[in-house]
Amino acid sequence: KKEGKGAYRFFEPTMDAAARERHRLVLDLRAAIGTEQLELHYQPQFDVDSNRACGFEALLRWTHPEHGPIPPVQFIPLAEETGLILPLGEWVLREACREAASWALPLGIAVNLSIAQLGQADLCEVVRTVLEETGLKPERLELEVTESLFLKGSARSQEVLRDLKALGVRISMDDFGTGYSSLVTLQAFPFDKIKIDRSFVSQIGVTSKGGAIVRAIISLGESLDIPVIAEGIETEEQLSFLRQHRCAAIQGYLRGKPRPIAEYRRLIAPIENLRVA
Length: 277
Ligand code: C2E
Ligand code: MG
Ligand code: MG
Ligand code: MG
Prior knowledge:
This protein has an 8-stranded mixed β-barrel with strand order 1-2-4-5-6-7-8-9, surrounded by 4 helices. It is built from 13 helices and 9 strands. By secondary structure, it is an alpha/beta fold. The protein has helices at 2-32, 72-82, 85-101, 115-119, 123-134, 148-151, 154-166, 182-188, 198-201, 208-224, 236-244, 265-268, 270-276, and strands spanning 38-47, 53-64, 68-70, 108-112, 141-145, 170-176, 193-196, 228-231, 249-251. The structure holds ligand C2E and magnesium ion (3 copies).
Protein backbone atom coordinates (compact mmCIF):
# COMPACT_ATOMS: atom_id res chain seq x y z
CA LYS A 1 0.00 0.00 0.00
CA LYS A 2 2.80 2.29 0.98
CA GLU A 3 4.63 1.53 -2.27
CA GLY A 4 1.46 2.11 -4.29
CA LYS A 5 0.99 5.49 -2.77
CA GLY A 6 4.60 6.38 -3.44
CA ALA A 7 4.24 5.27 -7.08
CA TYR A 8 1.12 7.36 -7.42
CA ARG A 9 2.82 10.47 -6.12
CA PHE A 10 5.77 9.72 -8.35
CA PHE A 11 3.71 9.52 -11.55
CA GLU A 12 1.22 12.25 -10.97
CA PRO A 13 3.55 15.22 -11.51
CA THR A 14 4.93 13.50 -14.64
CA MET A 15 1.47 13.23 -16.16
CA ASP A 16 0.75 16.82 -15.31
CA ALA A 17 3.92 17.82 -17.10
CA ALA A 18 2.89 15.88 -20.22
CA ALA A 19 -0.57 17.44 -20.17
CA ARG A 20 0.92 20.89 -19.65
CA GLU A 21 3.32 20.30 -22.54
CA ARG A 22 0.41 19.32 -24.81
CA HIS A 23 -1.56 22.37 -23.77
CA ARG A 24 1.46 24.58 -24.38
CA LEU A 25 1.89 23.08 -27.85
CA VAL A 26 -1.76 23.74 -28.70
CA LEU A 27 -1.41 27.37 -27.65
CA ASP A 28 1.80 27.66 -29.66
CA LEU A 29 0.14 26.13 -32.72
CA ARG A 30 -2.78 28.54 -32.47
CA ALA A 31 -0.34 31.44 -32.31
CA ALA A 32 1.65 30.01 -35.24
CA ILE A 33 -1.25 30.31 -37.70
CA GLY A 34 -0.53 33.17 -40.05
CA THR A 35 3.16 33.37 -39.11
CA GLU A 36 6.22 32.10 -40.95
CA GLN A 37 6.40 29.15 -38.52
CA LEU A 38 3.84 27.39 -40.69
CA GLU A 39 4.59 26.71 -44.33
CA LEU A 40 3.56 24.34 -47.04
CA HIS A 41 5.92 21.95 -48.71
CA TYR A 42 5.01 20.48 -52.07
CA GLN A 43 5.71 16.94 -53.23
CA PRO A 44 5.56 16.32 -56.99
CA GLN A 45 3.48 13.57 -58.57
CA PHE A 46 4.52 12.10 -61.91
CA ASP A 47 2.61 10.54 -64.74
CA VAL A 48 4.23 7.12 -65.21
CA ASP A 49 3.86 7.00 -69.02
CA SER A 50 5.19 10.46 -69.87
CA ASN A 51 7.44 10.86 -66.82
CA ARG A 52 6.16 14.43 -66.48
CA ALA A 53 5.01 16.12 -63.31
CA CYS A 54 1.20 16.00 -63.23
CA GLY A 55 0.54 17.56 -59.83
CA PHE A 56 1.73 18.27 -56.30
CA GLU A 57 0.54 17.35 -52.83
CA ALA A 58 0.67 20.17 -50.29
CA LEU A 59 2.02 19.04 -46.91
CA LEU A 60 1.98 21.22 -43.83
CA ARG A 61 5.23 21.99 -41.96
CA TRP A 62 5.60 23.58 -38.55
CA THR A 63 8.89 24.91 -37.27
CA HIS A 64 8.47 25.63 -33.58
CA PRO A 65 10.64 28.56 -32.38
CA GLU A 66 12.14 26.45 -29.55
CA HIS A 67 11.54 22.79 -30.46
CA GLY A 68 12.38 23.10 -34.16
CA PRO A 69 10.45 21.10 -36.82
CA ILE A 70 7.47 19.17 -35.43
CA PRO A 71 6.12 16.45 -37.77
CA PRO A 72 2.44 16.54 -38.88
CA VAL A 73 1.77 13.15 -37.27
CA GLN A 74 2.41 14.91 -33.98
CA PHE A 75 0.57 18.20 -34.37
CA ILE A 76 -2.28 17.32 -36.77
CA PRO A 77 -3.98 15.01 -34.20
CA LEU A 78 -3.65 17.78 -31.58
CA ALA A 79 -5.22 20.23 -34.01
CA GLU A 80 -8.04 17.77 -34.70
CA GLU A 81 -8.79 17.21 -31.02
CA THR A 82 -8.93 20.89 -30.23
CA GLY A 83 -10.79 22.18 -33.28
CA LEU A 84 -7.72 24.16 -34.38
CA ILE A 85 -7.75 22.09 -37.55
CA LEU A 86 -10.56 24.29 -38.89
CA PRO A 87 -8.62 27.58 -39.10
CA LEU A 88 -5.45 25.62 -39.86
CA GLY A 89 -7.09 23.61 -42.64
CA GLU A 90 -8.58 26.74 -44.15
CA TRP A 91 -5.16 28.39 -44.16
CA VAL A 92 -3.63 25.33 -45.89
CA LEU A 93 -6.38 25.30 -48.49
CA ARG A 94 -6.12 29.01 -49.28
CA GLU A 95 -2.32 28.96 -49.38
CA ALA A 96 -2.15 25.85 -51.63
CA CYS A 97 -4.80 27.19 -54.04
CA ARG A 98 -3.16 30.62 -54.18
CA GLU A 99 0.20 29.00 -54.95
CA ALA A 100 -1.16 26.61 -57.61
CA ALA A 101 -3.14 29.39 -59.31
CA SER A 102 0.16 31.19 -59.96
CA TRP A 103 1.74 28.30 -61.88
CA ALA A 104 2.27 28.56 -65.60
CA LEU A 105 1.18 24.93 -66.02
CA PRO A 106 -2.31 23.88 -64.88
CA LEU A 107 -1.09 20.99 -62.72
CA GLY A 108 -3.23 19.40 -60.02
CA ILE A 109 -2.92 20.44 -56.38
CA ALA A 110 -3.81 17.92 -53.68
CA VAL A 111 -4.76 19.07 -50.18
CA ASN A 112 -5.40 16.77 -47.21
CA LEU A 113 -8.75 17.14 -45.46
CA SER A 114 -9.28 15.92 -41.95
CA ILE A 115 -12.44 14.39 -40.58
CA ALA A 116 -13.24 17.46 -38.47
CA GLN A 117 -13.24 19.65 -41.58
CA LEU A 118 -15.90 17.49 -43.22
CA GLY A 119 -18.03 18.02 -40.13
CA GLN A 120 -17.68 21.78 -40.55
CA ALA A 121 -21.08 23.17 -41.53
CA ASP A 122 -19.73 25.63 -44.07
CA LEU A 123 -16.83 23.63 -45.58
CA CYS A 124 -18.35 23.76 -49.04
CA GLU A 125 -18.79 27.52 -48.73
CA VAL A 126 -15.17 27.88 -47.58
CA VAL A 127 -13.90 25.88 -50.56
CA ARG A 128 -16.09 27.81 -53.00
CA THR A 129 -14.87 31.13 -51.57
CA VAL A 130 -11.21 30.09 -51.68
CA LEU A 131 -11.56 28.99 -55.32
CA GLU A 132 -13.19 32.29 -56.18
CA GLU A 133 -10.64 34.40 -54.33
CA THR A 134 -7.63 32.58 -55.76
CA GLY A 135 -9.03 32.02 -59.24
CA LEU A 136 -8.01 28.36 -59.18
CA LYS A 137 -10.09 26.20 -61.51
CA PRO A 138 -12.06 23.72 -59.36
CA GLU A 139 -10.94 20.72 -61.44
CA ARG A 140 -7.32 21.41 -60.47
CA LEU A 141 -8.08 20.94 -56.77
CA GLU A 142 -8.00 17.43 -55.30
CA LEU A 143 -9.11 16.91 -51.73
CA GLU A 144 -7.60 13.84 -50.08
CA VAL A 145 -9.63 12.00 -47.49
CA THR A 146 -9.12 8.73 -45.64
CA GLU A 147 -11.76 6.13 -44.99
CA SER A 148 -11.92 6.96 -41.27
CA LEU A 149 -14.21 9.72 -42.49
CA PHE A 150 -16.78 7.14 -43.39
CA LEU A 151 -16.69 5.38 -40.06
CA LYS A 152 -17.74 8.42 -38.04
CA GLY A 153 -20.69 10.54 -39.16
CA SER A 154 -20.70 8.69 -42.43
CA ALA A 155 -23.91 9.97 -44.01
CA ARG A 156 -23.14 13.63 -43.36
CA SER A 157 -19.53 13.27 -44.61
CA GLN A 158 -20.68 11.72 -47.85
CA GLU A 159 -23.19 14.51 -48.36
CA VAL A 160 -20.46 17.12 -47.93
CA LEU A 161 -18.16 15.24 -50.32
CA ARG A 162 -20.91 15.12 -52.91
CA ASP A 163 -21.45 18.87 -52.56
CA LEU A 164 -17.72 19.39 -53.03
CA LYS A 165 -17.76 17.25 -56.17
CA ALA A 166 -20.65 19.32 -57.45
CA LEU A 167 -18.32 22.34 -57.27
CA GLY A 168 -16.06 20.51 -59.71
CA VAL A 169 -13.43 19.60 -57.12
CA ARG A 170 -12.00 16.07 -57.20
CA ILE A 171 -11.94 13.69 -54.22
CA SER A 172 -9.10 11.20 -53.67
CA MET A 173 -9.00 8.26 -51.31
CA ASP A 174 -5.73 8.55 -49.39
CA ASP A 175 -3.83 5.68 -47.73
CA PHE A 176 -5.94 3.12 -49.58
CA GLY A 177 -5.96 -0.32 -47.99
CA THR A 178 -4.83 0.67 -44.51
CA GLY A 179 -8.25 0.93 -42.87
CA TYR A 180 -10.86 -1.61 -41.85
CA SER A 181 -13.26 -1.16 -44.72
CA SER A 182 -11.48 0.20 -47.78
CA LEU A 183 -13.71 -1.70 -50.20
CA VAL A 184 -16.93 -0.67 -48.49
CA THR A 185 -15.75 2.93 -48.59
CA LEU A 186 -14.88 2.65 -52.25
CA GLN A 187 -18.33 1.29 -52.95
CA ALA A 188 -20.04 4.00 -50.89
CA PHE A 189 -18.56 6.99 -52.65
CA PRO A 190 -17.50 7.87 -56.23
CA PHE A 191 -13.83 8.68 -55.65
CA ASP A 192 -11.87 10.31 -58.45
CA LYS A 193 -8.54 8.78 -57.48
CA ILE A 194 -7.10 6.03 -55.32
CA LYS A 195 -3.77 6.48 -53.55
CA ILE A 196 -2.05 3.19 -52.75
CA ASP A 197 -0.55 3.49 -49.30
CA ARG A 198 3.22 3.52 -48.90
CA SER A 199 3.11 0.46 -46.65
CA PHE A 200 2.15 -1.71 -49.67
CA VAL A 201 4.54 -0.03 -52.09
CA SER A 202 7.45 -0.60 -49.69
CA GLN A 203 6.80 -4.36 -49.86
CA ILE A 204 7.29 -4.54 -53.64
CA GLY A 205 10.17 -6.92 -54.29
CA VAL A 206 10.49 -7.60 -50.57
CA THR A 207 7.66 -10.11 -50.21
CA SER A 208 5.61 -11.71 -52.98
CA LYS A 209 2.45 -10.63 -51.14
CA GLY A 210 3.50 -6.98 -51.31
CA GLY A 211 3.66 -6.96 -55.09
CA ALA A 212 0.44 -8.97 -55.37
CA ILE A 213 -1.53 -6.50 -53.27
CA VAL A 214 -0.28 -3.50 -55.25
CA ARG A 215 -1.17 -5.28 -58.51
CA ALA A 216 -4.63 -6.09 -57.17
CA ILE A 217 -5.29 -2.46 -56.21
CA ILE A 218 -4.19 -1.26 -59.65
CA SER A 219 -6.53 -3.69 -61.39
CA LEU A 220 -9.33 -2.77 -58.97
CA GLY A 221 -8.89 0.84 -60.06
CA GLU A 222 -8.89 -0.25 -63.68
CA SER A 223 -12.14 -2.18 -63.25
CA LEU A 224 -13.80 0.75 -61.52
CA ASP A 225 -12.31 3.25 -63.95
CA ILE A 226 -10.60 5.17 -61.13
CA PRO A 227 -7.00 6.30 -61.69
CA VAL A 228 -4.50 4.92 -59.20
CA ILE A 229 -1.45 6.72 -57.84
CA ALA A 230 1.18 4.98 -55.72
CA GLU A 231 2.64 6.78 -52.69
CA GLY A 232 6.08 6.47 -51.16
CA ILE A 233 8.09 5.28 -54.18
CA GLU A 234 11.71 5.10 -53.03
CA THR A 235 13.42 2.72 -55.46
CA GLU A 236 13.83 2.18 -59.21
CA GLU A 237 12.65 -1.39 -58.67
CA GLN A 238 9.34 -0.17 -57.27
CA LEU A 239 8.95 2.26 -60.16
CA SER A 240 9.56 -0.36 -62.84
CA PHE A 241 7.12 -2.73 -61.13
CA LEU A 242 4.47 -0.01 -61.12
CA ARG A 243 5.17 0.87 -64.75
CA GLN A 244 4.97 -2.78 -65.74
CA HIS A 245 1.59 -3.12 -64.04
CA ARG A 246 0.33 0.11 -65.53
CA CYS A 247 -0.09 2.26 -62.44
CA ALA A 248 -1.07 5.74 -63.68
CA ALA A 249 1.05 7.95 -61.44
CA ILE A 250 3.63 7.95 -58.65
CA GLN A 251 4.69 10.11 -55.74
CA GLY A 252 7.74 9.44 -53.59
CA TYR A 253 11.21 10.34 -52.44
CA LEU A 254 12.70 8.67 -55.56
CA ARG A 255 11.40 11.48 -57.74
CA GLY A 256 11.05 14.26 -55.17
CA LYS A 257 10.62 14.89 -51.45
CA PRO A 258 8.18 17.46 -50.08
CA ARG A 259 10.11 20.74 -50.45
CA PRO A 260 9.33 24.48 -50.64
CA ILE A 261 7.83 25.17 -54.07
CA ALA A 262 10.79 27.39 -54.98
CA GLU A 263 12.84 24.21 -55.38
CA TYR A 264 10.40 22.86 -57.96
CA ARG A 265 10.11 25.92 -60.17
CA ARG A 266 11.43 23.94 -63.12
CA LEU A 267 8.51 21.49 -62.89
CA ILE A 268 5.84 24.17 -63.09
CA ALA A 269 7.42 26.12 -65.96
CA PRO A 270 6.17 24.77 -69.31
CA ILE A 271 9.47 24.37 -71.15
CA GLU A 272 11.40 22.93 -68.24
CA ASN A 273 8.66 20.43 -67.48
CA LEU A 274 9.00 19.10 -71.02
CA ARG A 275 12.75 18.88 -70.64
CA VAL A 276 12.42 16.70 -67.55
CA ALA A 277 10.50 14.10 -69.55
P1 C2E B 1 -0.31 11.64 -46.33
O1 C2E B 1 -1.37 12.57 -46.78
O2 C2E B 1 -0.50 10.20 -46.64
O3 C2E B 1 1.04 12.21 -46.94
C1 C2E B 1 2.11 11.42 -47.40
C2 C2E B 1 3.20 11.33 -46.37
O4 C2E B 1 4.20 10.42 -46.83
C3 C2E B 1 3.93 12.65 -46.13
O5 C2E B 1 4.34 12.68 -44.77
C4 C2E B 1 5.13 12.52 -47.05
O6 C2E B 1 6.22 13.33 -46.65
C5 C2E B 1 5.44 11.06 -46.89
N1 C2E B 1 6.17 10.51 -48.04
C6 C2E B 1 6.02 10.80 -49.35
N2 C2E B 1 6.85 10.07 -50.11
C7 C2E B 1 7.56 9.29 -49.28
C8 C2E B 1 8.60 8.29 -49.47
O7 C2E B 1 9.03 7.99 -50.59
N3 C2E B 1 9.09 7.68 -48.35
C9 C2E B 1 8.64 8.01 -47.09
N4 C2E B 1 9.18 7.37 -46.07
N5 C2E B 1 7.66 8.92 -46.88
C10 C2E B 1 7.14 9.55 -47.96
P2 C2E B 1 4.15 13.97 -43.86
O8 C2E B 1 4.39 15.20 -44.66
O9 C2E B 1 4.94 13.75 -42.62
O10 C2E B 1 2.61 13.92 -43.50
C11 C2E B 1 2.07 12.88 -42.76
C12 C2E B 1 0.56 12.94 -42.74
O11 C2E B 1 0.12 14.13 -42.05
C13 C2E B 1 -0.06 13.03 -44.13
O12 C2E B 1 -0.11 11.75 -44.72
C14 C2E B 1 -1.42 13.61 -43.79
O13 C2E B 1 -2.28 12.60 -43.36
C15 C2E B 1 -1.09 14.53 -42.62
N6 C2E B 1 -0.99 15.92 -43.11
C16 C2E B 1 0.08 16.58 -43.63
N7 C2E B 1 -0.25 17.84 -43.98
C17 C2E B 1 -1.58 17.98 -43.69
C18 C2E B 1 -2.54 19.06 -43.83
O14 C2E B 1 -2.25 20.15 -44.35
N8 C2E B 1 -3.82 18.81 -43.39
C19 C2E B 1 -4.18 17.59 -42.86
N9 C2E B 1 -5.46 17.43 -42.45
N10 C2E B 1 -3.32 16.58 -42.74
C20 C2E B 1 -2.04 16.75 -43.15
MG1 MG C 1 -2.31 12.82 -48.51
MG1 MG D 1 -1.21 8.89 -47.87
MG1 MG E 1 -1.93 9.63 -44.28
